[in-house]
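Risk register update: the risk of archive-format incompatibility is retired. Evidence:
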Amino acid sequence: MASFDQKLAMAKRCSHEGVVAGAKAAVVATIATAIPTVSNSTFYCKKKRS
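Archived output:
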């Protein structure tokens, strides 16, 4: 059976991995949301000038 210190170390490692995975997902979601927004605004500006 694992000791308390081993369980605590594993919990810290798992929670850190979860934070890192969440941060990566947030970055990907931000980029995925920003690309259509930027391209739509660029298209709108070009269309407005015409």
